[in-house]
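Quick question, first post here. What does this chain look like in 3D?
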Amino acid sequence: MPQDAFTLRHIARELNRDLSGGRINKINMPEREELTFLIYTGKRTLKLTVNVNASDCGVYFTQDEKENPLTAPNFCMLLRKHIQGAEIISVETLGFERILSFRLRCTSDFSSCERLLNVEVMGKYSNAILIENGIVLGAIKTTTLDESHKRFILSGVKYTLPAPQDKTNPADYAALSALLKDPPEELSRFLFNAVSGIAPVTAEQIANHCSGNHIAKCVYDYIFSDETSPCVLERDGVPVDFFARSVKGAIPFATLSEAQAYFYAKRRAKKGLEGTRKKLSAAIQNSLKKHRKRLQQTLEKRQACIGAEELRVKGELLTANLYSIKRGDASCELLNYYSESGETVKIVLDPRLSPADNAQNYFKKYRKQKRTLEVLAPQETETQSEIAYLESLLASVNTAETQEDLRSVTEEMTAAGLIQEQKTRSKKVMPEISYRTFETCGFQIRAGRNNLQNDRLVRTAADDDLWLHTQKYHSCHVVVKTQGKNVPDEVLLYAARICAKYSDGGAGGSVAVDYTKIKNVKKPPKTKAGFVTYTDFKTVLVTPLESA
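> Answer (accepted):
Ran it through. Tokens below.
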């Protein structure tokens, strides 16, 4: 990400053009390392985001609405006290450093002064620092005296610039000319290692632009030119970087601020999607682990009761042969008349008990194990059903492509008690989540995003609509709205490929998809969401849809 001095110089020009003479009306701090300013310029109100997070550092205009904490952080309160209502005199970079400096005229009923808000865009060292007369009033990130820092950032100390790099300042043309008197073959690496304020991608752009003689002049002119062509480079829909100058294959933007806002919004959406997916998956996996352990315990108990019938047989053989057994016998060997081959069976006895009591002891053990099996049967069925349901939830999480997909699963998991409902400051009425909808050859195809939607999809479909589901995998339910018409093969295959895409088997290879009319699909009473039975089906083998 080229948040270098070269790029920040152009950002400062944009901000200075748009914000000079503007007044700071409101200051918020929605996140620990992010500030937002509402600034009235005389013609319009702009929302400026200042982010000093290590991975998202930047300063740009945005329209995002984020919920603010109930209690404003200390630094936010400090800014409200000292610069809310202040006029922005100018926005500029400090030398060729990665620092944006906002000069502010602060006027109150009793005093008037200038203060600086310096935003240091330096990766993990990024910071926002409020300064008056060279003294730090406060900062988002502060150091303490007991820490071994070369540069202290805390209230009351003198503000100092970061230690300079052992590199040539490109603003010093004489030094730049001496450095590039004999330019190396690998110019981009040399520029990054020897010239300050240049990121690797910027150095590569300069190297591609400059060739032949007068390299130093070309490099100087490129760095300090006011020409910009803001753009964002994407690969497979994922933003890779944003640039101040044009890059082949990148998406162009009118301003660097717009490019930054687009870049960070998409990257945060991707990060947020993966974070939510990880959280939901962890909750499901924890529940799966418990239920699988419970199932294993049930199977072990059932295995221990396999010999129940053998206990009953022994009790009956003892009852039939009481006359031939004496008290005090430790065992006996009796003819097993239940066996077709007529072999004998050895029965262990308790010498302390009479033959009749020994028989009753075997019947007692038999009845106990029989009762255990009767109790275990519904438990095993219930646990297996719960595991299947959790696995279907996990499939929904893994195939989710947007936050809307995950929100639908979150609502289902909250209703099922798998996760707790998140408390917010205000109860917002969320719009109902729609099905995934596709159109082809005049037919509408709907796919559920979660099990609750799958149930509703089946419940609201017409009898002649076509229903699809993968054969051996958990998947979404897919319905083709037929409107009484015959479904062409290409529509059937397209719907089957959608079904395969949103399934456990969607990672690749061929997937078997069953299809039948809705009238053949039944929802058994008291079953988990998403569970149905179906008859009179056919199967088609397809590859998952690559992009839907």
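The radius of gyration is 36 Å.
The chain has a mean pLDDT of 89.
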